[in-house]
Design brief:
The structure is a single chain. This protein is mainly alpha-helical. It starts with a helix and ends with a helix. The chain is built from four helices and no strands.
């Protein structure tokens, strides 16, 4: 048997062992793994940040809604007490306050929920909420 025949037999047993093909295949596999790892990490981080943002926004919205509901409830209770006492002057003074408070809340919710983060908004959420609190005071 000559050397060429033995090398050909080894190739058949071990497969093609040329450096170029092995390196090219290994590099392609490395790029695929690197890309998958990056995408997996990106998706995982995106989900974590989304959850953190939701939790923070939910907490803020809950506190803001509680303050707003408390103020509106106080105005409504005061108006109801005036009606129970049959104090016409008190009712006349408080009904417009109640109506204006409800209108201000409606406007705030419409702007913040329906319009959301459109460009061209004059105020941020915090600015809009502070305006609402001022209108309710």
């Amino acid at each position: 048997m000559d050397k060429k025949t033995a090398a050909e037999e080894d190739d058949e047993f071990f497969g093609d062992q040329s450096c170029e093909d092995e390196f090219g295949a290994g590099e392609a596999e490395f790029r695929d793994v690197k890309t998958l790892s990056y995408l997996d990490g990106f998706d995982e981080t995106k989900e974590e940040k989304l959850q953190e943002g939701f939790a923070e926004g939910y907490s803020q919205a809950f506190n803001d809604a509680f303050q707003t509901g408390n103020r509106l409830g106080s105005i409504a209770a005061k108006t109801a007490l005036c009606e129970l006492k049959k104090d016409a002057e008190c009712v006349t003074a408080n009904k417009p306050v109640l109506h204006n408070a409800a209108s201000a809340i409606h406007q705030f919710l419409r702007d913040e929920i329906m319009v959301g983060d459109e460009k061209g908004r004059e105020n941020s959420y915090e600015g809009s909420f502070n305006n609402l609190k001022n209108q309710l005071d």
